[in-house]
Design brief:
Elements (H helix, E strand, L loop, with lengths): L21 E3 L11 H15 L1 H11 L12 H9 L1 H8 L4 E3 L2 E3 L2 E4 L3 H15 L5 H16 L9
Parallel strand pairs: 1-2
Antiparallel strand pairs: 3-4
Helix pairs in contact: 2-3, 3-4, 5-6
Length: 158
Amino acid sequence: MGSFDWSVTLPPLGTAGLEPVTIQYGPNMVAFNTTEAENAATWEFIKFLASPDSQAYWASTSGNLPTRLSVGGSGEYAEFLAANPVVADAWATLPFAVSELQMNDLGNVGPAPFSLRVVMQDVKAEILTQNITREDAQQKLIDDGAAILGPHYARLFD
């Protein structure tokens, strides 16, 4: 799709035999609590946008992934995936996707903690300036990431 070649794959794993994992990015639907009539209309609109038929059409015409897995079984979207193998590869990563959400003692509450993003940024800088080996960078991300995120994402750091 589009005017340039692209592809998608799951990130490499640090340990052989682990189940693949990736972060799922995607669209969100947000509604604001206003009047009863506007709330009802908003809910109807969200139900329409999130319906399998609407999602199959939107995903097939935009190249974006649908917001619901059930669309994968629709004829329209299956035909689109067959004609667009790169998008089909992206679709195939979804069973391995986890949400990138900030963690606290109560669970997921938002985007990844800023402290984790700082660690990632620092490691990238060290790699680009050749001040750290690939193996040491990976271990630093594993160790510091596990310390920041704790047991909530333990399976990512096995």
